[in-house]
Design goal:
DNA-binding, homodimer, Enolase-like, domain 1, about 50% helix
DNA sequence: GCCTGGCACTCTCTAACCAGGAGTGCCAGC
DNA sequence: GCTGGCACTCCTGGTTAGAGAGTGCCAGGC
């Protein structure tokens, strides 16, 4: 009895049938029955045989039928096997890629590039696109302090990627414009051109080593810089585009589910978590349904990839859609977008 | 025949009945019939009499029945009359107001305050809140230029409301850091402390008058300032909160309608249009359904109000929800939020 | 002239029912 | 190991019937 094969090997033929079944289901959204499968397999097998095979696949937990007399639908495990080893990629049309490349303005700021990438992802897949802004990738161009009332100072940080960030920091006493200028000059001399991340670490070393030899102003300079850059570390921004595309997806017709999902997008916390996990991996990651570990992603899956700047992974970009999404298109879309975004960010160094 | 009354006066009794009908419908969401109305009117009239009156109201176009044997539902005109002259306001609980006031951080930046206001609106009404960031309200604290490659200059504008804006402007030739410093000094001397709007107008006058007497550097200073501030004029930012609340509203169950609506929120153009119209009016404006003139607002209505800073209308805030929304709560919510936001912005001058 | 109870009528809503169709599992035979 | 055949299950769509809600109109009363 083939039923005994259990976890054991899956014959090439059965793998092909599973592949067909999953693609078919992804396309039509309907449970697929033995007859259709027999017709389209090109394997010259009868429906009855297919039925036997299906029973095997079901025993392996790869497919399941919603009720006795419906066709089969892939399970999460079925999808897993499909995306991991059965899928044939359908590359994007060069026109689309070129259009995207043309549209990217090399003079634009980082956030703009990121949001263009997110838009592109969502428009090409008709799903939701997510891109995190690059993590501490920029280096410092200029630092500036402005006195505010009551021991507060406004710090303005301009980075080489043309972002301007501002933070209000609280200090021990109030400083005059001149003092602050002095401090800023000192810090600019030392840190301009360095990348933000290493400034933070460099700085700590400096501080401990040289503290004795500094005058009071220099010490406060160091203290202030620490405050400024420790906050800057948290690069928790993420740009979501095309959420509304998900409202067309009939697998996500349940308004309440959809609401939960949208709230996750707004909250951004869970998203960041997931993006963070992706950061640590390599290449394209696919989180199928509940696999992601977030309840609200019920029938949703995520195709994510890191992107690189300067040879280092700088951020993550992803597409969110129903588990029943055209992976053969979405995967290359994510892949190419990651490469192009990385290149665009790189070219501006 | 009372049917002849047409546009003529509406007896006090009939007005009361309309009021009851509308409130009842807003609460229950079901067409309301003569029997319920007779019971709750407190007027000691029989259902049959009510029916006659309803027929009159229908002839006046204030109510209409979805089909022969359903109760009556208010028309847009019916709602109009209701909100304009029948409604009894139910003020917010002081606890809620105080909680909001406590939560507003006077040290926060303008955008933060605005988005807190938007959050508050949406949480108190369980609908979507919209707040525009104040229009040219701030005055200039400091201006700074940084040279970029290829005739581009990064301008950083810090305003007294602690916003930091940056623009990339294109210039005729490239300038050195020193030249730019020079220019910035000149502009800061002249414009620091002035409000952004009047700088733009002031400046134009200056330019025309004094151009002859300036050296070349000063002239370019003026040119650059013009570029910077002309772009700054467009204060087209708007903060939307609680969109997802609208997904619970059963009047908006149609996913496609909802999608259109969400896209309007994302686009922001139409929203800004509407907010702009509100800017020009005074007090609370209510746009019922199609009245707003925007198709996507099909079954939605908007309760909007300007808010003032420094005695001048500075921006608009609004609640968007189904036309069948509890106006008696939403109106005071919008009203009080406008006042509190205005006060909070004012206190930071 | 206004209000009322009564009555017939209309329309929606729900449940129930009944094919028709699709797909299955199992079996016996090749 | 594959196949056709067959009985069975379950969903689907359309139809029907009855209940319920509300109406419009009418005739009669104050």
């Amino acid at each position: 009895m083939s039923r005994k094969k259990r976890q054991a090997e899956l014959s090439e033929r059965n793998r092909q049938l599973l592949k067909l079944l999953v693609s078919q289901y992804i396309e039509e959204g309907q449970p697929v029955g033995s007859k259709t499968l027999a017709e389209r397999s090109g394997l010259d097998l009868s429906a009855a045989t297919i039925r036997n095979i299906m029973a095997d696949l079901e025993a392996l937990g790869l497919v399941h039928s919603p009720h006795t007399s419906a066709g089969r639908v892939p399970t999460i495990e079925g999808y897993r096997l499909f995306v991991d080893s059965l899928l044939t990629i359908r590359p994007l049309e060069p026109e689309n890629i070129e259009a995207f490349q043309r549209q990217l303005d090399p003079a634009a700021s980082t956030t703009e590039l990121v949001s263009q990438a997110s838009e592109f992802l969502s428009s090409i897949t008709h799903l939701a696109g997510i891109v995190t802004v690059p993590y501490k990738l920029a280096s410092l161009k200029m630092l500036e302090f402005l006195p505010l009332s009551e021991n507060r100072v406004l710090a303005i940080i301009v980075t080489t990627d043309l972002e301007v960030e501002n933070r209000i920091i609280h200090v021990q006493r109030s400083y005059s414009q001149d003092e602050l200028q002095h401090i800023a000059n000192y810090l600019n001399e030392h840190f301009a051109g360095q990348d933000i991340a290493s400034i933070y670490h460099h700085l700590l070393a400096d501080m401990k080593a040289a503290r004795e030899h500094m005058d009071r102003i220099m010490r406060t300079a160091v203290d202030m810089a620490e405050k400024v850059f420790s906050e800057t570390q948290t690069g928790d921004e993420v740009v979501v585009a095309g959420q509304t595309n998900l409202m067309d997806v009939d697998d996500l017709a349940d308004i309440n589910k959809l609401k939960e999902l949208f709230e996750v997008f707004n909250e951004k916390r869970e998203i960041l978590h997931l993006m963070d996990r992706t950061m640590k991996a390599e290449g394209i990651q696919i989180y199928l349904g509940q696999e992601s570990g977030y309840g609200a992603f019920g029938d949703c899956s995520v195709v994510a990839s890191t992107y690189e700047v300067d040879g280092q992974t700088a951020g993550v970009l992803a597409v969110v859609g129903p588990t029943r999404m055209p992976y053969d298109r979405v995967i290359p879309a994510v892949d190419i977008t990651a490469k192009i975004l990385g290149a665009a960010l790189n070219s501006r160094k």
